[in-house]
Structures are given as C-alpha cells and as structure tokens.
Amino acid sequence: QFPFGRRLPCDIYWHGVSFHDNDIFSGQVNKFPGMTEMVRKITLSRAVRTMQDLFPLEYNFYPRSWILPEEFPLFVDEVRMMKDSDPSWKPTFIVKPDGGCQGDGIYLIKDPSDIRLTGSIQSRPAVVQEYICKPLLVDKLKFDIRLYVLLKSLEPLEIYIAKDGLSRFCTEPYQEPTLKNLHQVFMHLTNYSLNIHSGNFIHSDSVNTGSKRTFSSILCRLSSRGADVKKLWSDIISLVIKTIIALTPELKVYYQSDIPSGKPGPTCFQILGFDILLMKNLKPMLLEVNANPSMRIEHEQELSPGVFENVPSPVDEEVKVAVIRDTLRLVDPQKKKR
C-alpha cells in the first residue's frame, strides 16, 4: 500500500472506485474504464433490452423494464394493453433510481399512476420493472444471491465465476405484494444494508443460518429436496455470460478510448457482483450488476448508543477471502516468469 502516492511502478493496481484513480502506464488495473457507467440500472437495462430484441429466448432472465421519465407514456400504454388482453393479470412493479445503491429510493407500486412523478423522477431518472411475485423461499423468507464474477479480459473475453456466493435474506416472512404490504421493505427488498436495520436481522457464526448465508448452503438444501442443482448452476453461468456479452461492445469502446491499441498501457480485470433472484421454479433472474461489490469481512455492531465496533463475519470471510485470493492467482504477473 502506498498511502502517499507511488514511487515505483506496480504489477497490480488495486483501485477503490474507478479506473481513473491515477495515471497508469503499465501493469494490471482491477477496474475497466467505463464499467461503473455500464452497470448503472438504465445503461444495463438498455444493453440487455437490445439483446432481448435480437434474442428474446436467450435473454428472458431480465424482468420487463422501462426507463423513466422518457418511457413513462410507453409504460402506461403497455401495461394497459397487457391488462386488457388478460384481465386476471395483477402485476406489481418496482421502481429503482438509476444511481441508487443499497436499496436507497426503491419502492413498489401496483399501477403506473402510483409513480411518484414529483420533481424527483425528473431530476432522478429510474428504471421501473415488473416485480417478481413468486420468488423461491427458504424458511418462508425471500432472499437473493450475490455472486462474484471476475472479468479477466475483454479480448479474448475471459470470465470466471466464484464457486460460492452470499445469500442475503429478508427479515420478515414473505407474502405476495398487496396494496397493504407494498411498503414493507423488510419483506420485499433483500438489500443487506436495509435489512441490517431490522430487529429480526440475525448475525450468525454459521454459514447455514442467519440473515446472510453462503450460496452453497442453499444449494445443499435444494439438493436434499431433490432439486436439479447442476441445471441451476448451468442456468446461472449462462445468465452471467450473456449479461457480460450484452455489455461488451460498449466496454470495448471505453477501453479503446482510454487504452488505444498499439500504445503501452495497463491491462484490466474486474470483480463484479451479480445480484440474482431465484424464482419458485428455480429459474434465475438478474436483478443488477455491481461494479464495486463490498469486500468487507466484518460488520459494525452497536455496543451502546453511538458506539460501534467491527465484528468479524464468518460468512463474508469464507466467500470473499477466496474471491480475492483466486483473483490474484488468476491475474498473477509472476506466473509467466516461473
């Protein structure tokens, strides 16, 4: 670590947020130029939708989405048409601010007219998506999966998926959305940073229990119930690859403008956090992609009002230490010399 700037060139530059942290002329950087922009909710939705238009059956793992405010009239029209053709369809929609993170600003609605079309949506663009009403439940709770994906290079396209991830649980038993329970975030939203404030959040020393568990512990339970875990994994791998393929053309444009070919420059790699929801029928659905997934292996515990201490989190440690270790092994610059 060089807290006060570097004096020597490095093999690996590990940046906090984005590619543009410093001028770098060699080595490998743990961020791709343009990645943060590409995985924002609106850009990701646009990239996936382009592919959905071309390959509808291949890209059916992303919920139907509209971009606000520009597609608001389209959203209203399409929902009305779908309701006319199927009066029994009672959808719920989820509104997610474009740049939001950690569940900030997300809310559920039953009808397009419920969108908070105050000044905020004009100044704060968002994506509205069909809400997945029939998620797979474990212990009556909704959960999502955070998987860590290493994009090792764009040309050739090289992707690695960590064998284990995190399952992040809601803290109230799930019920399908109704007008009465739409606002119950601890039931509908799986974001760790929201649920940690719930009185029901369980910090566990075991990877199989609590409000945050390993994905492998969920796979074990599904397997013991007779689920086809191999197929589930293969569907998840397919979802990850197709998502990255959808982002690749624009990522290459960013890459070539920052690191023109023929000139010496660094090469890039990046760990992405894929948030995936399993439906009741075990079909994986992509919720979002994170360019800067948290690598913390501890959580804050309030000892007394306003007094916090950091407590190790065994689940985070088990998953994330392996992700960082194997990433460094995969991009190891010494390997060529051995």
Question: Would you write up a description of this structure?
Answer:
This protein has helices at residues 35-38, 41-54, 72-85, 119-123, 185-188, 192-195, 215-224, 229-258, 314-330; strands spanning 12-13, 28-29, 65-68, 93-97, 107-109, 126-130, 137-138, 141-153, 158-161, 166-169, 212-214, 267-268, 270-278, 284-290, 298-304, 307-312. The chain is α+β, with helices and mostly antiparallel strands and 338 residues long. It has 2 domains: 12-38 and 133-331, D-amino Acid Aminotransferase, Chain A, domain 1 (2-Layer Sandwich), CATH 3.30.470; 64-131, 2-Layer Sandwich (Dna Ligase, domain 1), CATH 3.30.1490. The strands form 4 sheets. Strands 7, 8, 9, 10, 11, 13 and 14 form a 7-stranded antiparallel sheet that branches. The longest helix is centred in the C-terminal third of the chain and has 30 residues, at 229-258. The mean pLDDT is 89. GO terms for molecular function: ATP binding; tubulin binding; tubulin-glutamic acid ligase activity. This is Tubulin polyglutamylase TTLL11. Keywords: ATP-binding, Ligase, Nucleotide-binding.
